[in-house]
Design a protein that fits this description.
The structure holds two protein chains of two kinds. By secondary structure, chain A is an all-beta fold. Chain A has strands at 3-5, 10-14, 19-21, 24-26, 32-38, 45-49, 60-61, 72-74, 83-90, 96-98, 102-107. In chain A, strands 2, 5, 6, 9, 10 and 11 form a six-stranded mixed sheet that branches. Chain A has a three-stranded antiparallel sheet with strand order 3-8-7, with no helix packed on it. A two-stranded antiparallel sheet of chain A has the order 1-4. Chain A is globular and about 40 Å long. By secondary structure, chain B is mostly beta strands. In chain B, 0% of the residues lie in helices and 53% in strands. Chain B has strands spanning 4-7, 10-13, 19-25, 32-38, 44-51, 57-58, 67-73, 76-81, 90-97, 104-106, 110-114. In chain B, the strands form two sheets. In chain B, strands 2, 4, 5, 6, 9, 10 and 11 form a seven-stranded mixed sheet that branches. In chain B, a hairpin with a 5-residue loop joins β5 (44-51) and β6 (57-58). Chain B is globular and about 40 Å long. The mean pLDDT of chain B is 91. The chains are: A mainly beta, B mainly beta.
Chain lengths: 108, 115
């Protein structure tokens, strides 16, 4: 069965510090992995997807099939990065399975 | 950009009544939409896949008679919570898939409180 695990409920870092939000997954096929972000009082929005291999707002994520991980990284966190981050897996038919989310708090 | 709108944003209803939540794709057609629910401080849980012109496909453990889904047009899917109970109180989120299939957009969510 598919599963997405985000072990940290809350991650607090200071502005300018590196940040890594962890995500591990299990899936029997070849999934697509995504990171979604939800800023305060806003809807979920796509941050990045592994097939795009792009950097959005300074964030990157590399799919490691050996470790079944898709950790989200940013070298220098900004206060405006404070939000809820969800790792998601999509298998067949564009169904999404979400992790429990990590709240990132970037302190000034 | 593409927008998915949900209505109402929040609703309070009495136990035993039914409540309908709408999900609209505002500037694109969506043959397929998805419904999720999210309990406080928990993740989004996929409830069902809504297919235009055909029956919805429900995830395991989701009662189809309890959560009625109708996808009558290419821009509208509705979720009706029937005979609502307090434990149905939750945040319901829909998403819509573009007909090209390569992009998903999420609605802003609807808070349901059953009293």
């Amino acid at each position: 069965a598919q599963r997405v695990t985000q072990p940290e409920k809350l991650l607090s870092v200071f502005k300018g510090a590196p940040v890594e939000l962890k995500c591990n997954y299990s899936y029997s096929g070849s999934p697509e992995l995504f990171w979604y972000v939800q800023y305060s009082r806003q809807r979920l929005q796509l941050l990045l997807r592994h097939i795009s291999r792009e950097s959005i707002k300074g964030f990157t994520a590399d799919l490691n099939k050996g470790e079944t991980s898709f950790h989200l990284k940013k070298p220098f966190a900004q206060e405006e990065d404070s939000a809820m981050y969800y790792c998601a897996l999509s298998g067949n038919f564009n169904k999404f399975y979400f992790g429990s989310g990590t709240k990132l708090n970037v302190k000034p | 950009g593409a927008v998915v709108s949900q209505h109402p944003s929040w609703v309070i209803c009495k136990s035993g009544t039914s409540v309908k939540i709408e999900c609209r794709s505002l500037d694109f057609q969506a043959t397929t939409m998805f419904w999720y629910r999210q309990f406080p401080k928990q993740s989004l849980m996929l409830m069902a896949t809504s297919n235009e012109g055909s029956k919805a496909t429900y995830e395991q453990g989701v009662e189809k008679d309890k959560f009625l889904i109708n996808h009558a047009s290419l821009t509208l899917s509705t979720l009706t919570v029937t005979s609502a109970h307090p434990e149905d109180s939750s945040f319901y989120i829909c998403s819509a898939q573009t007909d090209s299939g390569n992009t998903i957009y999420f609605g802003e969510g609807s808070w349901l409180t059953v009293v």
